[in-house]
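Inverse folding, one chain.
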């Protein structure tokens, strides 16, 4: 694993102990140091959400040649698909992965875990294998919701695959602050009130403290995870 002293610090204290500028510098430093170790095998997982937009912008500041991948599904809203086309046109170093396999009708209602596993987790595994990824960079933040409180900035949940969460410490408002100050384009769905974006059947506009409360409403997965941050990703290959 990449040697980095910051991993031992108390995440909860830093979330409110660092100011915005300190967080930006810390995030840039994390990406810079990881890129120095992993080079072209550092790849950004860009979900096209607001957090990914920040991470992608930070990565481009570190090196314009850093690559990324987008996982999309047949159920993404038209606005997200249009935003994806615009983003990929601007950054051809982003590769798009999608699983076209046949699945049962309304699997997202009957078994959302299997639906996410098929449509999201499997393509991510393929991206990691095909792009020869040693370090994947995500937009995960520990203040997003009940399922995201116990992560670290640098992790190795899969052996031989480092996961870097460079904006782990950021609050939601700091994400918007960064995007506004740096004039980074975002998915137009945010203007309608969405706070966390996913597939159309599984995403609602929500209010209140939990940013991910609008995800998988009415299912056991409500406010939860699609599995990319919880399931093994490196099962089919060895480095
Ligand atoms: S978010 Fe919903 S539609 Fe999208 S993959 Fe998961 S369960 Fe299926």
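Residues assigned per position:
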């Amino acid at each position: 694993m990449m040697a980095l002293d910051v991993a031992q610090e108390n995440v909860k204290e830093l979330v409110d102990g660092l100011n915005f500028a300190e967080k930006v510098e810390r995030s840039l430093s994390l990406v810079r140091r990881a890129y120095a170790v992993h080079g072209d095998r550092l790849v950004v997982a860009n979900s096209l959400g607001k957090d990914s937009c920040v991470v992608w912008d930070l990565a481009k500041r570190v090196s314009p040649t850093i690559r990324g991948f987008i996982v999309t599904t047949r159920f993404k809203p038209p606005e997200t698909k249009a935003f994806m086309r615009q983003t990929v046109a601007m950054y051809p170093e982003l590769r798009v992965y999608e699983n076209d396999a046949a699945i049962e009708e309304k699997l997202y209602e009957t078994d959302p875990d299997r639906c996410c596993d098929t449509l999201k987790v499997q393509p991510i595994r393929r991206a990691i294998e095909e792009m020869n990824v040693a370090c994947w960079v995500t937009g995960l933040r520990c203040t997003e919701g009940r399922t995201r409180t116990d992560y670290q900035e640098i992790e190795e949940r899969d052996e031989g695959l480092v996961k870097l969460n460079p904006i782990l410490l950021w609050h939601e408002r700091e994400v918007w602050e960064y995007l506004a100050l740096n004039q980074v384009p975002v998915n137009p769905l945010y203007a309608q009130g969405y706070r966390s974006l996913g597939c159309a059947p599984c995403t609602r506009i929500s209010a209140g403290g939990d940013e991910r409360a609008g995800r998988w409403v009415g299912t056991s997965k409500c406010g939860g995870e699609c599995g990319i941050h919880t399931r093994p990703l490196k099962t089919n290959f060895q480095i």
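The chain has seven helices and six strands. The longest strand covers residues 67-71.
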